[in-house]
Amino acid sequence: MSPSWPLCCYIFVVLFVLLMQFLWKYIDDLVGKGLEWYVIGELLFYASATLVPLALPLAILVSSIMTLGNLAEHYELVAAKSAGIPLQKILRPLLGAALAISIMSFYFSNYMLPYTNLKMGSLLYDVRQQKPALYIREGIFYNGIDGYSIKIGKKESDNQTLHNVMIYDHTAQKGNTKVVIAEKGKMAMSDDEKYLIVTLLNGHSYEEQKQGRPNERNKNPLLRNQFKTYKISFDLSTFKLNRTNEDLFKDNYQMLNLDQLETALDSFEVQLAGRKSEMQKTVASYYMTFRDSLLKTPASNETNFNRLDTLISDPVYESALGQARNVKAYLTSTADEMDAREKLQARFAIEWHRKYTLSIACFILFLIGAPLGAIIRKGGIGMPVVVSVMFFLVFHVMSIMGEKFAREGVIEPRIGMWIAPAVLLPVGLFLLYKATRDSALFDIELYSRFFKKLIPSRKK
What is the per-residue pLDDT across 344-397, written as a single tens digit (0 to 9) for each? Predict the structure, then answer.
């Protein structure tokens, strides 16, 4: 059985599951906005590409367990070992394939992932900013069109013929000073679909002319016009998906490769060092100003430093107290600013380490999955999938915890991002050692016999 085909299948299965999670998360931002099918397809394509680094380790873990489990279940590993081929030699080409996949995963994370993150991030931002599709319901004021508030009493089945139409015109930004009422109307799209043309029949328009002061509103004249046909064109350009310039998102840490992240981290170091130096100089200038003012104060027979009541009323004390308040406020604001910059720097450092940890995770999870398959000796979708999900959850939870601690500044990013690989690598090596020794690590009967020896049996 070739492990490449199962791996491809499992990657698509895991991607599908993660993509459904993505849709469930952003379903409120996608539904009801009249998006074209190709826009949704483009968003899902870029989203699936961004999920590859998360799906690939799980797919490798599942495929390695199931592949080696099938070989062990059908006694193919036993036949190979009886022919003098050790498990290390059997796993050697698979280890090479896992190492090659890890290297390709690194290059994908470094070059392709920033590009897909940029495309998906900009497109998702535009989709979330998109207005809901034009949908006018009966008996409810619709305010989706800028400058207008529309209410219809009834809409026929053709979705074009309207009855009892009321339209408030707010384009002049003077409040509810203009309203159009008609018994009947019909709406249709223009040929270029940029405008909604509403033709009203048998109605009146009312417009209040503001001429006097606000408190003399009752003196403003009211214009009333009767019409048989009245056309209003509504601009629908705001309902189209407007694409934002992608250059506005390219400086985000998720859109950078290793070289760009290193450059950004160096810039952060220079900025933080300069800010600390500036803070020291500012505090020193406050001290020098206070010292100079103190030296210029005329001495007396009983100096200010010997009597507390004189010190409190002395201008030097008032000046020192004011400068102390200024220094405290300056240090507080500077500390908050530097803390924000350090947290942002930590995010860039986390993304730099993620390029390596995600690729190394593929190899580590293979080291766990392949020996587990040989030890469990079960193929199919039963026990292997359960064990795979358990180990992947352990890896994922540890990764999230390490990243959160690094993001909050509890630990260094180089420590937080490498906690999960550092913990699971010895586990993989231990399982590999047990598998090469034909250890019955998951044999329940072995453990039951062991505990029966420890517990003495009672004689009748």
Answer: 889 999 999 999 998 899 899 988 888 888 887 776 666 667 777 788 888 889
Q: Is residue 136 part of a domain?
A: no
Confidence check: pLDDT of 116 > 70: yes
**Nearest 5°: phi and psi at 151?**
-140, 135
Claim to verify: residue 363 and residue 306 sit in the same structural domain: yes
Tracing tokens 């995963």 back to the chain, one arrives at 105
Residue 302 has pLDDT above 50, yes or no: no
Domain count, the chain: 2
Give the count of beta carbons closer than 10 Å to the beta carbon of residue 3: 20
Same domain, 253 and 307: yes
Q: How far apart are CA 58 and CA 406, in angstroms?
A: 24
Instruction: Look at residue 283 in the predicted model and tell me its pLDDT.
Output: 75
382 shares its domain with 288: yes
| Separation between Cα atoms, residue 272 and residue 340, nearest integer Å | 11
Position 162, amino acid: L
Q: What is the mean pLDDT of residues 157-185?
A: 83
CA dihedral (452, 455, 459, 460) positive or negative? negative
Contacting residues for 305 by C-beta, under 8 A, at least 6 apart: 311
Do 204 and 266 share a structural domain? Answer: no
Distance CA 407, CA 411 (A): 8
Nearest CA-CA partner of 199 in 215, 211, 188: 188
pLDDT digits (tens, 9 = 90+) for 405-415: 998 888 899 89
Q: How many other β-carbons are positioned within 10 Å of the β-carbon of residue 374?
A: 26
Cα separations (Å) of 324 from 287, 306, 332, 409?
9, 21, 12, 29
Mean pLDDT score, 73-99: 82
Instruction: For residues 64-82, give the mean pLDDT.
Output: 79
Cα within 13 Å of Cα(455), Cβ side: 8
Same-domain status, 209 and 64: no
Domain boundary pick from 176, 204, 239: 239
